[in-house]
């Protein structure tokens, strides 16, 4: 009798333990699934803008009504610098400055094949980097941060306090510096714009070639020799242009009446696809 009792008791205990183990495994699986889902969701900062012109107009009107600046950030969730900047926007102090002073759009550039309507607001044919930060006065639709926008190409290196100071500065100073250029300065500016536009077309061509390659990379996380070569040489051009633009803008700005100068354009080597053609 005692043996039968012990056997029944042991069976009950084993059944209870089995059910308990199954319950714990179910809860653990659910927890891991939710954790993974939340992690994935946190990575998704940038959204597709299906009709950029409609979006820009709507944001413009809202910014005017709310007395805010337009802040368009072009980036991608596959880009470390883009997600770094978007993460900084979520910190308490920076989020407060952004929400009180800006209408923020985090626009997805896809695989370097979206977002070009936004950069046209800055008089550009293409973006040079992800992220690209455009601060626009909605009343004049002029870009306010043209001179220092390119620091965000290395956004992960920009400290949170520097980020806070940057967006606070433009929130507190919403006017462009007057540039009463003379005829020669205007001519030189147009010359610079023509040269920059020709280089931006080269970048655009590179993006078109990189789009399908990058799309495959985002899926597989495996780069190819061709991708590495295209990316590195195109990156070199994209990093060179802001420096050349800044140097020539300073030459034009500092030009005195009666002086004669020539703009400084470096000799740029052909890109891989240009050498192949």
Number of strands: 4
User: Largest beta sheet, briefly?
Assistant: 4 strands, mixed
Uncertain stretches of 5 or more adjacent residues = 2-7, 32-41
CATH class membership of the largest domain: Alpha Beta
Terminal CA distance = 94 Å
Beta content: 5-15%
The neighbouring-strand order within the major sheet is: 2-1-3-4
Q: Could you estimate the helical fraction of the residues in percent?
A: 55-70%
Q: What is the CATH superfamily classification of the largest domain?
A: Glutaredoxin
The arrangement of helices and strands along the chain is HHEHHEHEEHHHH
Annotation keywords:
9 helices; disordered N terminus; single chain; about 280 residues; 4-stranded mixed sheet; Glutaredoxin; alpha+beta
What does this structure look like?
There is one protein chain. A hairpin with a 4-residue loop joins strand 3 (132-137) and strand 4. The N and C termini lie far apart (94 Å). It is built from nine helices and four strands, in the order ααβααβαββαααα. With 277 residues, it is α+β, with helices and mostly antiparallel strands. Helix 4 (92-101) packs parallel to helix 6 (160-172) and helix 7 (183-220) runs antiparallel to helix 8 (225-254). The chain is 60% helix and 8% strand. The longest helix has 42 residues, at 2-43. Strands 2-1-3-4 form a four-stranded mixed beta sheet. It has three domains: 1-43; 52-172, Glutaredoxin (3-Layer(aba) Sandwich); 183-276.
């Amino acid at each position: 009798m005692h043996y039968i009792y012990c056997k029944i008791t042991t069976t009950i205990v084993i059944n209870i333990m089995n059910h308990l183990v199954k319950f714990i495994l179910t809860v653990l699986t659910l927890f891991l699934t939710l954790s993974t889902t939340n992690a994935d969701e946190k990575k998704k900062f940038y959204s597709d803008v299906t009709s950029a012109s409609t979006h820009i107009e709507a944001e413009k009107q809202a910014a005017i009504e709310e007395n805010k600046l337009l802040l368009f950030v072009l980036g991608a969730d596959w880009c470390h610098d883009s997600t770094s900047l978007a993460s900084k926007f979520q910190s308490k102090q920076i989020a407060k400055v952004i929400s009180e002073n800006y209408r923020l759009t985090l626009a997805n550039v896809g695989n370097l094949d979206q977002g070009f309507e936004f950069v046209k607001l800055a008089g550009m044919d293409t973006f040079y980097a992800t992220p690209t930060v455009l601060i626009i006065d909605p009343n004049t639709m002029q870009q306010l941060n043209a001179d220092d926008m390119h620091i965000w190409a290395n956004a992960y290196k920009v400290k949170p306090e520097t980020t806070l100071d940057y967006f606070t500065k433009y929130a507190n100073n919403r006017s462009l510096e007057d540039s009463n250029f003379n005829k020669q300065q205007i001519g030189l500016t147009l010359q610079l714009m023509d040269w920059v536009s020709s280089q931006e077309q080269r970048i655009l061509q590179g993006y078109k070639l990189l789009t399908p390659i990058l799309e495959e990379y985002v899926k597989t996380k495996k780069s190819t020799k061709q991708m590495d070569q295209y990316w590195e040489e195109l990156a070199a051009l994209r990093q060179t242009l802001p420096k050349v633009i800044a140097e020539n803008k300073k030459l034009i700005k500092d030009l005195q009446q009666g002086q004669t100068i020539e703009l400084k354009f470096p000799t740029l080597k052909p890109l891989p696809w240009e050498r192949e053609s």
